[in-house]
Amino acid sequence: MSQGQNKRNTLFLLSKIVCSVLMLIASFFLLKHYFFNQKPTLTVLTWVGGETYLPRAGHPQDLELQYLQQFSVQQNLQFKQIKVTKFDQLFSKLIAGEGDVIAANLTITTARKKRVNFSDAFIQSNEYFIMGKHSPPLKKGSALNGREVVIQKGKSYQTTALGLQKIYPKMRIRYIDNSISTELLYDRLASGEYDLAIQDANLIASALAYRDDIKKSIQASGKRDIAWAVNIENEYLLTQLNAFIDSQQLVSELLKTTHSSSNSTTGNTSSTKVVPSSTIKKSNLTQWQTIQAKGRVRFVLRNNLSSYYIWRGELLGFHYELAKRFAKENKLRYEIIVAPDNVALLDYLIDDKADIALGFLTPTEARRAKGIGFSRPYHYASELVVGQSGVTGIETPQDLKGHKIYTRSSSAYWSTSLQLQKTVPSVKLIAVPENMETESIIEAVADKKYDMTIADSHIVDLELTFRDDIQSFMALGEPKAQSWGIKAGNQALLKEINVFIKKHYKGLFYNVIYNKYFKNKKRLDQQYKGYVAEIESGVMSPFDDLVKKHAKKYGFDWRLLVAQMHQESRFDPNAKSLSGAQGLFQVMPRTAEQLGIQDMHDPEQGIEAGIRYMDWVRERMQADKIPKSELTWFTLASYNAGAGHVRDAIRLARKKGWQDDRWFNHVEKAMLLLSQPKYAAKARYGYVRGQEPVTYVREIKRRYDTYLNISNHQ
For the chain, first and last CA: distance in Å? Predict the structure, then answer.
């Protein structure tokens, strides 16, 4: 071998060594980044049958999750929630290491303590019998003989029932599937399909806040400790959780709000005893200091489209997002309280039921005289006269002669209307109910029930993204400032609010969420100029083959799914909604993650996610015993608005005497009513813009019928 060849071999060897060393160094830094910069995760297991989707002032399980999120922040952990469909799987998953802690309003029992460790108890609660409103009452324990109690295996209620059966041997126990949700259990009690069930007092109190078709009966057990469950080998986490519970004196106080808030629960609260903790001396503290000491700030909102609502399982709303951000930046937990009407929104501040009111409040002298203080402006809005589309000849205030304006007498619009009357005396001013939202008044105008109304420009903008049957004629005066509301005199709290508003008003965060809720215009069919030509050729969409492939797997008519895909995205794989839904079938990111889908903008993955989710929704509607002939329409409605809103509509249809297993002209009519405050207040999932799922289902059916007709003539 020549000297030159040796030299080349040596250089080659050195270069390989250098490359290896560089790769080792790179790997070291990557591992260092992963282990030192990547936060470890606290994985919390919850039971979906026990969850609530619209917390009004705190459902027990929602509050547990808030505390565990706070714990995660303190411990510098990422927070991850895993929803388990069957209750008994909570323990098997914890023991298998698939989760770190169970948060499910768990009662400490001897049998469970053999499998898992429990944190210190943070609340004590009795168990009670619960039944349908019209069920024969229980006046004493002996009346249990001859009655039937439904139980899910693995729950503490099973032990209670077995113990009572020894005393009252003629009491029957019937075991039902563990996947039956709490809400479905209530439905079946209300309908009489189930006779009796057993539940913790705090869960019953939460349910009675929005349901009047069930009732609490006699006590079933003594005091039971409720706590979090931890893997028996994870002593370190158990120690940290107990230290957290001990330090958070408000664990008990916040859970108590489930029973004490007038707008969140009803019924007897004496059955729940809060674990004693250190007290706060409030006499010398400002309201802001009290908020800091408790670690919690209470926001009062209205359940409407601009403030706080649920859509596809996601809590949304402009004011809801502001409230969350304020709490986060001040390292506080937040509590959302829903006011029953617009007068109560401010009364709750005066009565110390809330700390901050959010609702596009215009500072007025009447409100200040009532004892309300206002922040610096966080929004400006013009007040617009709103009427039906197609009406012409109204361009100046004088053109309003003889017209009727409908609005709430407590609103700033009323004051504006009074000023208008001074200029145009023949304008008639009519007061509407105080619990009627501006959006509902606008809808009444669109339906020609009311002549005209006045609404803020941003609300009109929002309405015009959904409808084309109204118009704004003119602005009345200059844009008005709108502020956060507090109880007058709380200067320290006001200062913190003003700091927050000054920091964010017209900034990135503010602009993003404002545009999200008030500037997101509808996509138009004209985007797809070749659509009609494709239909005429027998091609339903650019993705027919992909839809056929997945539709066959899950037993759907592919033409129905193409009609749905058109309604969701107009065949745009990059479509994204204001709530964050993505892709051809507009699936929420969290849902896609649970389905194992990585890229919602990839057509095949987006289609697979949508069809798999449709299949998942259909299974749940089948559990509600929807007839096969109606299943498609209920499934589509649930896909669009969420199964919770559909179940609320089913219950309401039943109360109204309509058929609760027929969608068109029955349950859809009830769905429309859920946008009215008096019905939304008694619905578990609260307000829903009922016109959306109703239109959604009807439009898909219309297009589906068209596709069927085209197919039959090919």
Answer: 78
CA distance 407 to 636: 35
- Write down the architecture of domain 383-477 according to CATH: 3-Layer(aba) Sandwich (3.40)
Consecutive H or E run containing 101? strand 101-107
CA neighbor of 711 nearest in space, from 549, 562, 514, 517? 562
Spatial contact of 310 and 53, defined as CB atoms under 8 Å apart = yes
* 346 C-beta neighbours (distance < 10 Å), count: 22
Q: Which residue has the tokens 């944190």?
A: 119
The CATH architecture annotation of domain 287-378+485-518 reads 3-Layer(aba) Sandwich (3.40)
Amino acid at the residue 225: D
Predicted structure pTM score: 0.60
Q: 99 by DSSP, 3-state: which?
A: coil
For residue 105 the two structure tokens come to 């309003």
Residue that has been written with the tokens 């008003």 in this structure:
505
Q: Are strands 127-132 and 116-118 parallel, antiparallel or unpaired?
A: unpaired
Show the tokens assigned to 154.
């693995």
Rounded Cα distance between 510 and 11, Å, is 60
pLDDT > 70: percent of the chain? 83
Write out the two tokens for 344: 């109560």
Tell me the pLDDT of the chain averaged across its residues: 82
Q: 252 or 689: whose pLDDT is higher?
A: 689
Domain 50-279 coded CATH 3.40.50.1110: no
Rounded to the nearest 5 percent, the helix, strand and coil shares of the chain are 45, 20, 35
Q: Is 605 helix (H, G, I), strand (E, B) or coil?
A: helix
Whether 314 shows a pLDDT value over 80: the answer reads no
Residue 446 in tokens: 């669109």
- pLDDT above 80 (res 706): no
Q: Which residues contact 312 (CB under 8 A, 6 or more apart)?
A: 579, 581, 588, 640, 641, 642
pLDDT band at 329 (very low <50, low <70, confident <90, very high): very high
Where does the pLDDT of residue 55 fall: very low under 50, low under 70, confident under 90, or very high at 90 and above?
A: low
CB 84 within 8 A of CB 193: no
Q: Which pLDDT belongs to residue 11?
A: 56
Three-class secondary structure assignment of 544-588: HHHHHHHHHHHCCCHHHHHHHHHHHHCCCCCCECCCCCECCCCEC
The stretches of 356-437 forming alpha helices (DSSP H) are 365-369, 412-423
